[in-house]
Structures are given as structure tokens and as C-alpha cells.
């Protein structure tokens, strides 16, 4: 039953009940009819007023309900828009995951993906002259990257083509037998790849006594340490270290600090040489100033000797001017 019917029915029922009471006890004659008519008019007016008030309240309630409904519809539309955007993002992410799965599933694409990731990290963390890409060693073997560290430890080669087929088979194994087979295959792949890197990329006198294998997945790095920790330690004893993007980031930070320290030591040595040269030039300047002072003192002495000689010459000239070269006259002789 609608909510607005009950408030309307109550006054109507009350009016009908009053009418029945009046009719039951109405007096006989015209006065009773007139009185009943007056009461019916009054009751009708009150009923009209109650109905009008109820209609007004009903209209106001309907208007408020319409406003609330519009507001709810607006919020629903907003949430639907957010849901549509989230759905589009999820679909795009699904496409990207599918693409990434295809990249990791293909050996050549996976190698290219690892190389791009490795190259971006090297370019971001190391100076341009601190590393080389696709560097060819003296043996003719080309490594994916070479980090130019000074001896010791020396340049470090990096490989980024770790086989992932056995690891993917291990993660997708449906039962224990398939899992055990995938683990044995993964152990064989690890030993073979570590042996290749240790043989090709560790060259005494040319590179450091170690090399790095870059794993483009943190999950693969964690699984290898958890499932094949003994093989990881065996590789480390041979000088081959498995690094993930996170660990390589830290390793490159340490290498950059080492390169900066080497550069600072070289600059300090250069500065020390320049200071030594400056001290030598300062000593040479002191000697030349001392010679100049000596020459200046000798020059002053020579000037003094020249002044003395000039004074003597002047005095001699004065004496010469005072000498009477002509013979004395007779008058001067008589006077004498």
C-alpha cells in the first residue's frame, strides 16, 4: 500500500463515522436537517483542507524524492564512469601483460627486452665513459656490456641472455613429476650458462676476476636463490654473480662511487703535480728576484762610482777654469 493513502483514508473514515453518529441521533423536522447540512458543510470543508494539506505534503515529498533520485542517478553515472575507466585500464594492462608474456616467451624477444632494460640502467647510473655496449674482447667474444673499472678490480663484463624456458616450465608444472623434471633442467641450464660466462667473459689481465649475469626478473632471481641456492653459491665461487634489476641498481651505485673516487684521486694527483710545478716556478722566481736585487745593488754602486767620477771631473774642470794662462802685465808686477 502506498504511504500517501493511509493519511487520506483516516480523515475520510473519521468524517463518515461522524456522519453516521449525527444521522443516528438527528432530531426530527426541518431544524435537524439544517443542522445536519451545516455540519456536513463544515465536515466537507475540513475534509477539503485536510486533503489539500495532504496533497501539498505529498507533492513536497515527491519533489524531494525526485531530487534524491536525480542525485543518486548522478552519483551512479559518476561511479559508472569510474568503473568504465578502470575497466579500460584493466583491459590495457591485460594487453600489456599479454605482450610481456609473449616477449618473455620468445627467446630472441626476451634477450632484446633484457638488453634494453640493462642498457637503460647503465645509461642512468654510470657516466658515458664508464661503460661500453656490445664490447668485443681481445679473444673476439662480444659481451653485452663492459663496465670500465680501474685495476683492481678491472673491467667487468655483463651478460643478459639467461635461459628462462626451464624456469617457466617449473612455474607451470602441473604435478610433482613435472616440477622435478623442470628443476633438473633448470639446474643444467644454470651450470651451462655459468660455465659459458666464466669461460668467455673472465679474461685475466683484460677483465676483472668476475662477471655478471643480468636477470630481467626479480621473481626469477628470488626463485634461483630459494630453489637452487647451492648453484648460485657455486657460480659465485667461479666469479659469476647473478643480479636482478634491484641488486644491479645497488651494484651500479657502488661502481659509480668507485669511479668517482678514482676520478677524484686522478684529479688530486694532477692538482699535486700542478702545485709542485707552481712551487718550482715560485723558487725560480725567487732566484731571479734575488739576481735582480743583486744586479740592482751593483747598479746602484756603479751609479755612485759614476757620480763620484762625475764630481771629480766637475772639480777638475773648475780648477782648470781657475788657472790663468796669460803672463802678468808690468803694472801688476809693479803692484806686486
UniProtKB/TrEMBL annotation:
Coiled-coil regions listed in the entry: none
**Any transmembrane segments, and where?**
6-25
Q: Which domain of life is it from?
A: Bacteria
Q: Which UniProt keywords apply?
A: Coiled coil, DNA recombination, Membrane, Transmembrane, Transmembrane helix
The UniProt entry's sequence similarity note says:
Belongs to the RmuC family.
Function noted in UniProt: Involved in DNA recombination.
Among PANTHER family, the record links this protein to:
DNA RECOMBINATION PROTEIN RMUC
Q: Could you identify this protein by its name?
A: DNA recombination protein RmuC homolog
Taxonomic source organism = Paeniroseomonas aquatica
